[in-house]
Write a structure and sequence with these properties.
Helices cover 32% and strands 26% of the residues. It is an alpha/beta fold and 194 residues long. The structure holds S-adenosylmethionine. The site of S-adenosylmethionine has 18 residues, from loops.
């Protein structure tokens, strides 16, 4: 992914992540690619990642950096180990394509957010219905899921965020550069728990 990071993903992380504050949960935090962009005003940072190999790389980054108190958890987005209304912000980047149940995971995110709390998302999503790209996404999806860790090419994550009961306060529709055409487009933005 390094060419994709350099071609713009890194910049998107820099624009999205620093707006968080207070108590923050990142789901599917991977190897900690967002770690560098968390601001000092974060009081509590919980990074959850179910994959042990990724957690190991993340922990090495935490040990070698100056990040204040960070809690690492093995929880999934569908079963977040936290009480209701625990967090001011939940962050996800390139995670909701892979979760087994998109709807369950979004309801969990909403559950653990405080009233008025914000969900910061950056996700690749389905192309426009009826487009040639969408047809290819639908065709390739069964095989892609098998080789790419259950990643779905054709999820309408923006619609699912709304159906989970969030209000979307900002969203940008773009494309990751240098990535395979079937992994376009992306959405990034902020959803609010009413
Ligand atoms: C493409 S990686 C993105 C990693 C990181 N968020 C980033 O931006 O670099 C997808 C991540 O989602 C995680 N993941 C897969 N299924 C998950 C689930 N059910 N709940 C939470 N995270 C999950 C994977 O282990 C992996 O770390």
């Amino acid at each position: 992914m390094s060419s994709v990071e350099k071609a713009g993903l890194e910049q998107w992380r820099k624009e999205l992540v620093p707006q968080v504050r207070g108590s923050v949960l990142e789901v599917g935090a991977g190897t900690g690619a967002n770690l560098l962009y968390y601001p000092k005003k974060v009081i509590q940072l919980v990074l959850s990642e179910p994959d042990a190999g990724m957690r190991k790389q993340m922990k090495a980054k935490i040990a070698n950096g100056n990040f204040g108190q960070v809690i690492v958890s093995s929880g999934t987005a569908e079963k977040i180990e936290a009480k209701d209304a625990s967090f001011d912000f939940v962050v996800s980047s390139l995670v909701f394509c892979s979760v087994p149940s998109l709807d369950t995971a979004l309801l969990e995110v909403k559950r653990v957010l405080k009233k008025g709390g914000r969900f910061i998302f950056l996700e690749h999503v389905a192309a426009e219905k009826g487009s040639e790209r969408r047809r290819w996404q639908n065709r390739i999806n069964p095989l892609w899921r098998k080789i790419a860790g259950n990643c779905h090419l054709n999820r309408d994550t923006e619609k699912a965020i709304l159906e989970a009961g969030f209000t979307i306060s900002e969203v940008r529709h773009e494309h990751l550069h240098t990535i395979m055409p079937v992994v376009k487009p992306t959405i990034r933005g902020v959803a609010v728990k009413p």
